[in-house]
Amino acid sequence: MSDRIFGGIGLVIAILFAWQASIIQESFLTDAVGPKVFPYIIAAVMGISSVYFLLKPDPEPHWPRAGRLAEIGLAVLVLAAYAELLPVAGFVIATAVAASYLTWRLGSRPVESLIIGIGTSVGIYIIFHLVLGLSLARGPFGF
Q1: C-alpha–C-alpha distance, residues 19 and 136, integer Å
Q2: Tens digit of pLDDT at every position of the chain (143 positions)
Q3: What whole-number distance in Å separates Cα of residue 47 and Cα of residue 124?
Q4: Fewest 10 Å CB contacts: which of 93, 100, 111, 136?
Q5: Which of 125, 102, 6, 23 lies closest to 63 in space, CA to CA?
Q6: Are the beta carbons of 36 and 22 closer than 8 angstroms?
Q7: Domain ranges, ordered by start, for the chain
Q8: InterPro entries, from UniProt (predicted)?
């Protein structure tokens, strides 16, 4: 039964996601694909996966314990804080903090997590901003 509840919630979120994608304002300078395609793809994959859970639920699903659910909830809060912090702190700092926390919770040691977080942030910045020329959120230090 819990798989069907999970599938139903996922299907509602997929429909909401597709609806939100449909109201994205497109600029007259967008490329041929446009900004709506990727959200539509995500909504379609999530919707198909949710329908699978509705039609073929696991007879005895194994749900994580309360501690694991709390960690998942905290990771979601970190990602929400990342989205809020991104325009204020900039891409490099916000991404380094979020990536460091997430890699630490995935099992890395604290110092390793910090190095991985900073390396991930700087690496993505170099590829997307310096190589591809895409605009990323600037922080108080100009990057």
Answers
A1: 26
A2: 788 898 999 999 999 999 999 998 887 777 777 788 889 999 999 999 999 999 998 888 888 899 988 999 999 999 999 999 999 999 999 999 999 999 999 999 999 999 999 999 999 999 999 898 888 888 888 77
A3: 30
A4: 111
A5: 6
A6: yes
A7: 1-55, 66-131
A8: DUF1468
